[in-house]
Amino acid sequence: MEIYLVGGAVRDTLLKIPVVERDWVVVGSTPQEMLKNGFQQVGRDFPVFLHPNNHEEYALARVDRKYGKRHIDFNCISKDISLEEDLQRRDLTINAIARDKYGNFIDPYNGINDIRLCKLRHVSNAFCEDPLRVLRVARFAARFFHLGFSVDSKTLLLMKLMCCELKWISPERVWKETEQALVTKNPHVFFQVLRDCGALEILFPEIHSLFSIPTLTSLQKEINVGVHTLAVMSIVSKLSCDAVVRFSALCHDFGKIFTSKKFWPNHFDHEVLGQRVIEKFCTRLRIPNIFKNFAKITAKYHDFLYTVNRVTSEKLIQFFNDIDIWHHKKKLEKLIVVSEANLLGNIGCNDFYKEKIKFLRKAYEIANLITAKEIIQEGFTGKNISNVLNARRQDVLGKWINIYNIKN
């Protein structure tokens, strides 16, 4: 029995970045021997075992044989499989490097050289057997973009040829890869690579459509909404690590898909239309409600903050109620982040916006001075509580806005 460290742990060690988890491959053993040595088998389809002490994954060397259309339709063969054969089934050369117990690297597919070249290159033509790898490569491109990595041209060509198979990937798996891409340093690269290989149109037609929609060139250098959206994602990823915030930045202009073409490049009512698109988008990909709900709020209000100091106290209270700021103050700060990124993606300047943020935060503080507790103590019950609460908050906010306008 020979045991080797493989995959991401070896790659990340060579990249000199933190190793999150370690995977091992076992050559020359059997399931029976692994169980006899105290390992616990995980699942029935693949010969993967958990170490009895540290619970790290140890997999018997194997090759996979595709038998169906779906990305999970593989037969696993683990008898008499060499380390080189096991490494050959992996997606990218940088993930097909092993290290033995003496610290020696086994690199039959030149992954170490590709790390030096910063190239994401497929190991073999077996890459084409799993359409999920299109998403995985795009995710790795986003993850390692800050290190200078890019997709090899031949690998990108294979990804283009695989697009017809993408329909067999389950919505849950598409979302899982997307969610992992959202927390990388450059999530916009994930969607750009998918666009480059033709996968964006198939997996995310809503995002693909944005690249054919004009935007206000008098305010923006970008020539379409898609380019603007990726720019906003790039900016927001520097302002927030929250995947929910980044996802909402991705969806904020979805409503422009259905605005009237006769008014382009203006997009009237795109805030309302966007909420409907997001609802369908998230339903199709089975995206969790925490992402969907905040994305809908962002679609509705991402432009609201630009004119917030000119709206009535009634509109402000309606806004605060819609985002439920009274119970979730962080929602306001998250919305501010997306709105700021959108502004920077439009005109590249946010000096005048800082005053509006101060205004909004102060407006919340003023309105929040009126609480339901004191109204209940006065004897109000049922719906009267919320009615009186809203009225008093509007009143105190209106008086403060009048004073603010006089001073400014």
UniProtKB/TrEMBL annotation:
Single GO term (MF): ATP binding
Binding site for CTP: G8, R11, R90, R136, R139
Pfam families in the record: HD, PolyA_pol, PolyA_pol_RNAbd
Protein name, per record: CCA-adding enzyme
Gene Ontology biological-process annotations: RNA repair; tRNA 3'-terminal CCA addition
General function of this protein: Catalyzes the addition and repair of the essential 3'-terminal CCA sequence in tRNAs without using a nucleic acid template. Adds these three nucleotides in the order of C, C, and A to the tRNA nucleotide-73, using CTP and ATP as substrates and producing inorganic pyrophosphate. tRNA 3'-terminal CCA addition is required both for tRNA processing and repair. Also involved in tRNA surveillance by mediating tandem CCA addition to generate a CCACCA at the 3' terminus of unstable tRNAs. While stable tRNAs receive only 3'-terminal CCA, unstable tRNAs are marked with CCACCA and rapidly degraded.
Protein family according to the UniProt entry: Belongs to the tRNA nucleotidyltransferase/poly(A) polymerase family. Bacterial CCA-adding enzyme type 2 subfamily.
Coiled coil: none
UniProt EC number: 2.7.7.72
Gene: cca
Required cofactor(s): Mg(2+)
CDD domains, per database record: HDc (cd00077)
Residue ranges constituting the HD domain according to the UniProt record: 225-326
Binding sites annotated in the UniProt record for Mg(2+): E21, D23
Residues annotated to bind ATP: G8, R11, R90, R136, R139
Keywords: ATP-binding, Hydrolase, Magnesium, Metal-binding, Nickel, Nucleotide-binding, Nucleotidyltransferase, RNA repair, RNA-binding, Transferase, tRNA processing
Record-annotated membrane-spanning stretches: none
Catalytic activities: a tRNA with a 3' CCA end + 2 CTP + ATP = a tRNA with a 3' CCACCA end + 3 diphosphate; a tRNA precursor + 2 CTP + ATP = a tRNA with a 3' CCA end + 3 diphosphate
Miscellaneous remark of the record: A single active site specifically recognizes both ATP and CTP and is responsible for their addition.
